[in-house]
Design goal:
mainly alpha
């Protein structure tokens, strides 16, 4: 709920950095532990597929009341997608959050 409120306070449009700032409160530790990142992951991976794609991110930003273009969502996936699969695995998500601390 903290992340949703932060997103809504900032307006309906947000870039990738703003989105990451909004979900940062979900990471309760000073440094992201796997468990704290997993809590954020579970919010994004609603279907428990084990990976995130553009559709998952689109649903998440919509649920947060945000508007991101398909191009911005593709950029988010590309930024995190270390193996070039077009999807974000938990390990890639964790690595991305860890390097942004």
């Amino acid at each position: 709920m903290v992340a949703v409120r932060a997103c809504r306070r900032k307006g309906h449009k947000m870039d990738f950095a703003g989105f990451m700032d909004a979900i940062a409160p979900l990471l309760t530790a000073a440094e992201p532990t796997q468990e704290s990142v997993r809590r954020a992951w579970r919010l994004l991976d609603e279907n428990r597929k084990g990976h995130l794609d553009i559709e998952d991110l689109s649903r998440a930003v919509h649920n947060f009341g945000l508007e991101l273009s398909v191009e911005e969502l593709r950029d988010m996936v590309a930024y995190c997608d270390g193996n070039g699969s077009g999807e974000i695995t938990f390990d890639e998500f964790y690595q991305m959050l860890s390097r942004n601390q």
